[in-house]
Amino acid sequence: MALFEEEMDSHPMVSSLLNKLANYTNLTQGAHEHEEADEEEGSKKKAITSPQMGTFMGVYLPCLQNILGVILFLRLTWIVGTAGILESLVIVGLCCSCTMLTAISMSAIATNGVVPAGGSYYMISRSLGPEFGGAVGLCFYLGTTFAGSMYILGTIEILLTYIVPQAAIFRAERKEEVVDALLNNMRVYGTCCLILMAIVVFVGVKYVNKLALVFLACVILSILAIYAGVIKSIFEPPDFPVCMLGNRTLQNHDFDKCLKTEVIDNLTVTTKLWSVFCDGPDLNATCNEYFVNNNLTLVQGIPGLTSGVISENMWSEYGPLGMLVENKKLSSFGGSDPTKDIYLPYVVNDITTFFTLLVGIYFPSVTGIMAGSNRSGDLRDAQKSIPIGTILAIATTSFIYISSVVLFGACIEGVLLRDKFGDSVEGNLVIGTLSWPSPWVIVIGSFFSCCGAGLQSLTGAPRLLQAIARDGIIPFLQVFGHGKANGEPTWALLLTAGICEIGILIASLDSVAPILSMFFLMCYLFVNLACAVQTLLRTPNWRPRFRYYHWALSFLGMSLCLAIMFISSWYYAIVAMVIAGCIYKYIEYRGAEKEWGDGIRGLSLNAARYALIRLEEAPPHTKNWRPQLLVLLNLDSDQGVKRPRLLSLTTQLKAGKGLTIVGNVLQGTYLLKDAEAKKAEQNIKSAMSAERTKGFCHVVVSSNLRDGVSHLIQSAGLGGMKHNTVLMGWPETWRQSNDPESWRNFIGTAQGMGQ
After folding, report:
1. Which of 90, 121, 154, 273 sits 20 to 30 Å CA-CA off 540?
2. Are the CB atoms for 288 and 385 separated by under 8 Å?
3. Could you write out the DSSP letters of every residue in 107-122?
């Protein structure tokens, strides 16, 4: 509650807290403004009030809500069972360290001068320049959009697997068709859910805003239910038995008793399980060899915190697609034909598992750290709230993840942990079996949490794209800057829904998660890289006041981001880096319409200074000689270039190598000819661009033309980058004897160079 002290003002703590919670919103500032515009309905805008949100409501809670999500509820138990407790802690530590280091860099940006309203994109782009700002902004946009796909897929997975499985449209006739049927159901229901959410966002974000507190409550109550279940398991573990045949785990869907036969009225009769493994219900039916040779055993799925199962879950259990989930402690006799096992109700791996895959699947669960900075314009003191709130939110969620890894490994049987969809416990959500008072608390809580996260992604991503488009730094995106009369980003929402549909058509949560991991990692990498470079170059406008920031932390964060990218998926990493690099070079090539000052430009200045000093250290060798041209151009009375083809000759002479300085001399005094000199310089640059001549332009104003040319020849260039050749046009009036002035200037210039 220390974070909430600044928001108490003069009100009592309880009433102030309740009032703030009642008005809680997780929308970005732009979305909030559009909501207000909807409510005004054309009337005059209300008087602007100063931002009143503090650290707790403005940064801490939004970050907490965005970080905790679908991976925690649907995949963390499976990750712990597959990777083991030790390697799971490595995965969590690696990812949480990456976001913590990025948060420190974000804190440096937030304390570098006045924090602009408009969220993370505005804050980064105005601090780091349009090139880095655009690259970070688009990576953040793509990551947020694919996050929307992931949350929608999570919502549909919870709906069809745990809430209403009978609602499935596609049904599998055979066991090997189950995965395909599930993916097709995810595609159909996911597309319908996306359309519904897009309509809600299009109609008005105020409807999303009204549910923000509900979504937050779902996340918090679900976390509390998990911890309550862990405590209860010490005294009274929940009853979720897992049926084992030999050492193999059985899917508990088609039978109600873990028995081969039972005695009813002194008669031995077969059970439903017998009919699954045998060709009939009769006692003399032909049965599966492994079923005959092995006994059925009931294993408690949740033995409890004090059961000692933690020692068995320490190590990893990776395996290929179709590998049986087995308990090594139980005895197993004989084998069976693996080609026939796919038709039997065993719990198996639905994908090939390995450490690097799990890193890519887990990383989205630590994203969302920019949720607080997205509300920079709503914060009373953004320079204080963003660093404290974001770092404390990451510390809180890191504790939740680390403790969850240990507690899941200490409370849940290994075979149940590796059962991704809870098939061995009658289709219950595995994390729900541990929760108290009921598994439905987690199922319903995670369902609404995923719904809310999906809506927030579809609300925030279009506004981010709209902000990038309106800045004009990427010309072909400008169409997405337009929208409804109140500024609602209609076209951006359509594009976002289209990209989101790509993720939904992939249909697998495990396949979409590494994709969005790449874009978020690229975004974090750019933030860390930019902060480290600006510090090392001592950029004048880079003066962060965050006391715990150091360039080494940013460099470590950048290295960690790069390492996790290639650990997760090297080919996805290369694609993401190519996309980000193309965005950066495109913005640099086309030139941004708006210039906010690029701190990274200092890198070019330092490199140029270093190169010039090195050139001065020794005279150039003959092998390194190349034409360094000073081109003297004539201008007409309107300061237009008379002989632009001279520039083409220049390009051919130096073959794209060496230095080119294009100069001109204007007669007169500088105070009177200042405007003409600037116009002449602009015209020369335009001619150089038209003739594709790369070089520099230098216009000199002198009282005497001959002296001006002499000064230009002597002073042009810098250090080792000086001209060794002068190129000038032959006098136009050489046939006319009545104009000797041009001849005198030409001959005088030639003599001056000869001397």
Report:
1. 121
2. no
3. HHHHTSSPPPSS-HHH
